[in-house]
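Bug report (template v2)

What were you trying to do?
Predict the complex of my protein with nicotinamide-adenine-dinucleotide.

What happened?
Run completed; filing so the output is reviewed.

Input:
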Amino acid sequence: SATLSVMAEEEKEAFDADRAGALVKELRECFDNGKTKSYDWRVSQLESIAKMVDEREKDILAALHQDLSKPEHEAFVSEISLTKGSCKLALQELKSWMMPEKVKTSMTTYPSSAKIVSEPLGVVLVISTWNYPFMLSLEPVIGAIAAGNAVVLKPSEIAPATSSLLAKLLEEYVDNTAIRVVEGAVAETSALLEQKWDTIFYTGSGRVGRIIMSAAARHLTPVILELGGKCPAVVDSDVNIEVGNSIYHTSGVMVAVRRIIAGKWGCNSGQACIAPDYLITAKAFAPKLIDTLRSELKVFFGENPMESKDLSRIVNLYHFKRLSKLMDEDKVSDMKVLGGQRDENQLKIAPTIFLDVPEDSLIMEDEIFGPLLPILTVENLEDSFAVINSRPKPLAAYLFTNNEELKNNFVKNISSGGMLINDTILHVTVSGLPFGGVGESGMGSYHGKFSFDAFSHKKAVLYRSFEGDTPTRYPPYTPGKLKLL
Ligand code: NAD
């Protein structure tokens, strides 16, 4: 009977479609009461999240360390600071974001006035991922709250410490009649997906993105899909010039390489959706590029990077094995020019670089999402455009060059979610730029005001008076009336 009662308890606990339905009903009632629409409610919730991040910073850093051995410095910059910054911006700008936007009207409607009114969508679902499990969960939630919605967050089960911390903290800090966390994996997410939502915001792989979109289609629910892809970084040999001033003097290639390292291994060991996935450079320049990568990696992570505390580990054994398979494929194992060390017990893989891997190798097939970096070479740098354009559109594309014409051609000819010239990653920190994919890297965008817009309906409102009524629009339609138009 003890077993039976445990089973009964488990059954009661299982988050199935019925419980998901009850949750949505509860949140919808709350939304319909109008509470979440008020400016004051939105501000109070955003302030609570900012307070939560401030007060519980240590717990958050500890959970991130537990899930990914994420170095504290990295976690602070990319998870704590970015989340706080987004709360702060939303609090500063909310009044102006909520303000109806006046638009011009036409002679046809004269006299009249028109405006675009942003209204919350209703009850929204945010499904998040594991690589930046704190920031990528809260960033869309901040947008959803700013726009006045009730929201359910489903964090990733692959980062369990952060998932359970988020559940605990949000229960403690925010209004649970409108903001809830559901923890779980496929079963729980599927139960949530059976419900009717007013939008679904999903971050993760294209494979699951397709599942989300078909579930949403049943209810005609709009989706925002923040997916991934193989982000290329093209490096021109003309970066190899002296730069800087008398205090900080270095070479352009050194700057380019440091920024590539920061964007690849300094971002969760390459487990980042906008980490450079592969490099393309001119054949003649590859040796210089590799030498500089080798020397700078040593400066950053020491002689033995496996011992470095500044490199995140691979998230779990499944992903460790997936990456090992890419490294061990016969076609590429001889192409390794740096690294290759790995430790299954610690789930660590050293920064590993391959040169001239065949385009049909596994490592060039799907997004790598780890610390492996293949370098492709071309005779002429503009040949890289064809390589990039022969693949699905990436979430980000990078170019390092001093050549203005090449920059222009890159922007004109490469389609990607975002683009950054002469650096990596930092475009996501510019809140005036939308963040999102195109084609297979996703649909819809967010960050800053774009987050508010992502969770709002833009309602078109036209105000007419009883003046200005003309008979020309009314039957009977006579030739004389047509002439007057
Ligand atoms: P994933 O698709 O495996 O999982 C993400 C979420 O989907 C989790 O919450 C998980 O519980 C849920 N899920 C998994 N299987 C499901 C199923 N069968 N049915 C319903 N829900 C399911 O993705 P991942 O491995 O966590 O993420 C890796 C991918 O995410 C990479 O492609 C990366 O580029 C992308 N990514 C994109 C961004 C971005 O902002 N665009 C950010 C981080 C990661």
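What did the reviewer find?
The CA atoms of residues 105 and 380 lie 52 Å apart. The pocket of nicotinamide-adenine-dinucleotide is lined by residues 127-131, 136, 154, 156-158, 185-186, 189-190, 203-205, 208, 211, 226-228, 273, 367, 369, 395, 442 (CB under 6 Å).
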